[in-house]
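The authors assume throughout that readers already know how a fold can be written as discrete tokens. What matters is that the chain and its backbone geometry are given together, residue for residue. A single example would do more here than another paragraph of explanation. For illustration, here is how one protein appears when written out as sequence plus structure tokens.
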Amino acid sequence: MNPSTPSIKGLIKLHKPEQPTRPIVYWHSAPAYKVSKLFTQKINIIAPLLNTFNIKNTKVLIQKLQDTPISPHFTFASLDITNLYSNIPVKETRTILANILKHNLTDPQTWHELLKWYDIITRQNYFNNNQDIIIQYDGLVMCATSSSIIAEIFLKHTEYTHMAHLTHKHNIINYFCYMDDILLILDPKSPDPRPKTH
């Protein structure tokens, strides 16, 4: 009821060098807010994501680290995805979602509706700042309920597409992911299985 243009404010990241600003969009007033919530609920039921690499919280991470045999020469690497939501390719992710729904044998009507909702949500990517309407042309809507699961769809697809090759190439012992934060354990002393060239 009574939708309005979402507004944007900045939250300073005091814990990071140079204290960058995190944009916060108040999306609860957006016309597509309820569609976004419903989309998220339906996807979680119809096409739940496989969470092979996902970590729910710190407790789970500690347990998985304890279960991983660690040698003194292993290397730990921490990675962070820069500006996750604004870097998710919307069109490519739509194709990935369509393939997931087909793979799960989703009935045609539900399949069509979910993709229509996806289009509505991702196209309403705008906000108000000092009475100026600003359109975000790339990526996902910041702070929309559905943006988290849409980002997860793309990230999980990327992981399952490339992890086997990367694990073999870089001797990855274990891989943990929590949204846009990644922890890798590598074995730099493991022999390179690739043939030598002269």
Notes: Residues 193-198 have pLDDT under 50 and may be disordered. The longest helix spans residues 147-170.
